[in-house]
Amino acid sequence: MTNHDFIVTTQWSVGRDEVGLAKGDVINESISIPSSLGGVGEGTNPDEMLVAAASSCYIISLAATLERAHFNDISINQESVGTASLTNGKFKMEQIKHQPKISVEASQKEALEKRLDKLLKIADNNCMISNSIRGNVDIKIEPYIL
């Protein structure tokens, strides 16, 4: 087994109406409670970062899966929506829905349509974030081929 450490430091002062900082090798972002939840809404927030992590992991995994399946001249634009709920005073991410729009050469469109379901599952199974949240967060994939 090989382990990889991803180190992020966070800073916060005072109460809930403040702005903190999340910093890693590349990320250097202000963090706060979203304004939609009564916070100051500056920078990003853990909910958005969770959806961004799931989305970026899935799109990278999907691109690699399509490449290994010999679909080389593609582009993917994806929207991902995280749906959270408040139940008994506790917030929980219920679902993350990925909607990849895959552009492929016309000559490969039919072949991709035939193999797409299997390739989507392979990509999801190879995504570390999907593997980490599966069982706690429902992951939906609604693809479009352009």
Describe the model:
With 146 residues, the chain is an alpha/beta fold. It is 34% helix and 32% strand. The protein is built from three helices and seven strands; from the N terminus they run E-E-E-H-E-E-H-H-E-E. The chain has helices at 46-68, 106-125, 128-133; strands at residues 9-11, 20-23, 28-31, 74-87, 90-104, 138-141, 144-145. The strands form two sheets. Strands 4, 5, 6 and 7 form a four-stranded mixed beta sheet that branches. Strands 1-2-3 form a three-stranded antiparallel beta sheet, with no helix packed on it. Strand 1 and strand 2 form a beta hairpin. Helix 1 packs across helix 2. The radius of gyration is 18 Å and the shape is elongated. The mean pLDDT is 96.
Quick recap of the structure?
The protein is an alpha/beta fold and 146 residues long. Helices cover 34% and strands 32% of the residues.
- Average pLDDT taken over every residue: 96
N-to-C span: 39 Å
Query: What is the H/E order?
Result: EEEHEEHHEE
Name the overall outline.
elongated
Measured by DSSP, the beta-strand proportion falls in 25-35%
Helix proportion: 25-40%
Number of helices: 3
Low-confidence stretches at least 5 residues in length (pLDDT < 50)? none
Gyration radius from CA atoms, angstroms: 18 Å
| Structural class estimated from helices and strands | alpha/beta
DSSP E strands, number: 7
Biggest pleated sheet: 4 strands, mixed
Multimerization state: single chain
